[in-house]
Structures are given as C-alpha cells and as structure tokens.
Design goal:
It holds the Pfam family DUF4287. Helices cover 67% and strands 0% of the residues. Helix 2 (23-32) crosses helix 4 and helix 3 crosses helix 4 (53-69). With 70 residues, the chain is an all-alpha fold. The radius of gyration is 12 Å and the shape is globular. The protein is built from 4 helices and no strands.
Length: 70
C-alpha cells in the first residue's frame, strides 16, 4: 500500500506538469531570491513567473520549511 503525499508536496506533480520546470528548479529560484518573507516570495512567483497562488504558496512553504530544518 502506498502512502498519499500530503501538504505542499501534493501540488508538485501538477506544478511540474503545468509550468514545465522541475520543483528543484523552482526551489533554487526561491533560495536565490533576495526576498525572504513568505508572502513576498509568493507575490514574486506570481508576478514574475506566472504561477497561481496555490502553486506559489506550496513551493514557498515547502522550500522555507526545508531551509529552516537544515
């Protein structure tokens, strides 16, 4: 039996399919941005890269959580 992916990562397959970039590439963009606040990063992804709010929010939340954990 497989475990369903939950949380922000559940958006990743549709993000990759819709925008044609791997999640790792989006995460690198987020990490290299001079912006640090969650909503600033979400707004930037939406304005500069055309992501929808839910997709941008999922990428930022997951990336910032990984960064905080390391």
């Amino acid at each position: 039996m497989t475990t369903a992916v939950k949380g922000p990562a559940s958006y990743f397959p549709s993000i990759e399919q819709k925008y044609g970039r791997p999640v790792a590439e989006w995460q690198q963009l987020i990490r290299s941005s001079p912006l640090v606040k969650h909503m600033e990063l979400v707004a930037w992804l939406k304005a500069e890269h055309g992501l929808g709010h839910g997709h941008a929010n999922a990428l930022v939340a997951h990336t910032l959580a990984q960064t905080a954990a390391s």
